[in-house]
Amino acid sequence: MRTYLVTGGAGFIGSNYIHYMLKKYGNTIRIINVDKLTYAGNLENLKDVENEENYTFIKADICDSESISRIFDENDIRRVVHFAAESHVDRSIRNPEVFVKTNVLGTLVMLNAAKSAWELPDGTFKPDHKFLHVSTDEVYGSLDEGEGYFYETTPYAPHSPYSASKASSDMLVKAYMDTYHFPANITNCSNNYGPYQFPEKLIPLIINNALQGKQLPVYGDGKNVRDWLYVEDHCKGIDMVQEKGKLFETYNIGGHNEKQNIQIVNIILNTLQDMLSDSDPRKNLVSEKLITYVEDRKGHDRRYAIAPDKIKAEVGWYPETMFEEGIKKTIAWFFEHEEWMSNVTSGDYQKYYQEMYNNK
Q: From which residue to which does the signal peptide run (predicted)?
């Protein structure tokens, strides 16, 4: 049974990845989920698998080298998928130090622990042991309309403390691959959306606010462009890179779903109107009148767009979910999990599990 160490597995993408992997591989794999349980970590995301014999949760900080080393010492870990990161740009503008600590120093701790556990006396590494570092397209900076796409060879030009910290972590992984021949890959993905996404992010925020008749805040003129990737497609891509990708390579994972932010808002509103029954009182709340333009974010990148040509050619991955289909699946999931959204927005999701693990 191959053991995977997933960092940040209680977060949005991490929890979706764990669901995807357990569904695909069943009891042929074991997953150890390491998460600090900050505001973005929610074990309710994994409630339906928490009692599975091949799933283990460990509350730990990736910056705690002693705890991380112990996990490697006590388990035969063959795969690391490193999601754990502070990821919200607005929070990084307010408090850059937290992002540097978690995203840079935390990645360094993970690299050192894996290197120590996997390195053989001759300086080579145990066969079939692999580290995958999950990063973002934001490290590439910003594109103008019609300028083209981000490729793996695009120079890094981060503009926010968040993207700078992720760029720094990418550089550390690259340095370990070059210096030690450390068995790793890097993936840089476009904006994810789908189930379990924390509602400070654009899509769940708009869905939740629209259903409550609250204002829908849109930065600047609303014409900033992002490439949207359905989270399950991303999870599939990560798995395929670890199993089929060439070691030491970087792969961009993009959705071919470029949309302006204001387009996203309008698509959500129209989709909600179509999906809500006439008898549902929330249908009368959903309106374009709720759209409110607010002061633009500092250093707001104008456009992100990924060209996933390399991962298509070398790994065989492609984005399967177009945005119009993915947003329907996402909204349907939120309709079916209204209690989850209520617990997250109220903060109740933190109380039970935080108390449980703080008392251990």
A: none
Give the domain range for residue 14. 2-358
Three-state DSSP at 53 gives: coil
pTM confidence score: 0.95
Q: Extract the tokens encoding 356.
A: 């449980």
Distance separating alpha carbons of residues 91 and 321, to the nearest angstrom: 29
Domains: count for the chain: 1
Q: DSSP labels for 87-108?
A: --HHHHHH-HHHHIIIIIIHHH
The 10s digit of each residue's pLDDT in 232-266 is 999 999 999 999 999 999 999 999 899 999 999 99
Q: Which residues are catalytic?
A: 137-138, 162
CATH code for the domain of 312: 3.40.50.720
Under 8 Å CB-to-CB from 61, ≥6 apart: which residues?
A: 36, 67, 106
Return the closest-CA partner of residue 91 out of 163, 172, 14. Answer: 163
